[in-house]
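Entry: Alpha/beta hydrolase fold-3 domain-containing protein
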Amino acid sequence: MSSHEALNPIHPAVLPHLDPVFVQLYNEHVANTPAGPIDLSVLRTKYSVLYSYGTGPAPDCARVYDSEVTGHNGDLIPVRVYEPATPGPWPVHVDYHGGGWGLGDLDTEAHICKHICVKANVCVIDVAYRLVPEHAFPIGIQDSFAALQYISAHGADKFNIDPTRVSLGGVSAGGNIALICAHLARDAQIPLKLVAVGTPTIDDISKYKSAADAPWPSMQSMEHAPTLNWARLKWFDNLKWQSIASEGPTRDAQLAAVKWYANALQAPDFTGLPKTVIYTAGCDPLRDEGETYARKLIEGGNEVAQKRFAGVPHPFMHMDKDLWQAKEFIDMTADHIKATLHQ
């Protein structure tokens, strides 16, 4: 499989837009790494430490343990539970990790989950939804919503949480999952207080042959952005659609299950959704579609907080050791969760 990202010096078109602190961090740890063929199984073993060179220490929770919940079609899927030091029942924040639908696990956003647990004084449940291409898209959404249904129905007894005080969150593909699950929760009358996401994927880029075809200026200006560029986005997108059968009734059924999930802007109803926080990154190809989704929520009459963090690329929140933007992302996310779930 060909490389989806050239790990070498930052493209000159993007360099002036990046925070010098990130540039130094990237140049020290990434820029001189030779680009080679991408092996999915190898990449999966390394993905959760991909940005560890910039990840700061996280506070200790009172208890962290692994468990299981019911996913799509009744199958059990893993979760990791982070408990605060105060006595329960606790409000709960449900996290869906990033990774382009085909990468990521319960270690990917562990440091963010720990920060949220301690700073917001909530139980955090991180969901390990199944991945493409071995499972058909939209398995990540299907598993994640089934997990939310389980937590809402059984979490009081199993996890000592208060099912009337629930928030959702995630980064990148996980942010997409959280946003879509908010629509599904509303329709299923599952109470949600808040959705707080970072750099979410929104659009279906399989429609575009090149970055120039996309309607988003950020897709063109940040086509060669470090850590997530157009080529890498297409690699992830191809992985997603490769999970769908090539022909026959299985393909028909799988495509029917995709519904509007491939492009969250096509959701049929933008009214009656919970308060939503959307954080974008200035040097992220996905920036403009995330901000457009925020505007659609506002047009639907929903409460929205939206902020663009300038000078940083798509996965900046993993680099809180060095980037003030990452520290602020974590602190602001925790503050929103704390204020909303404890009010």
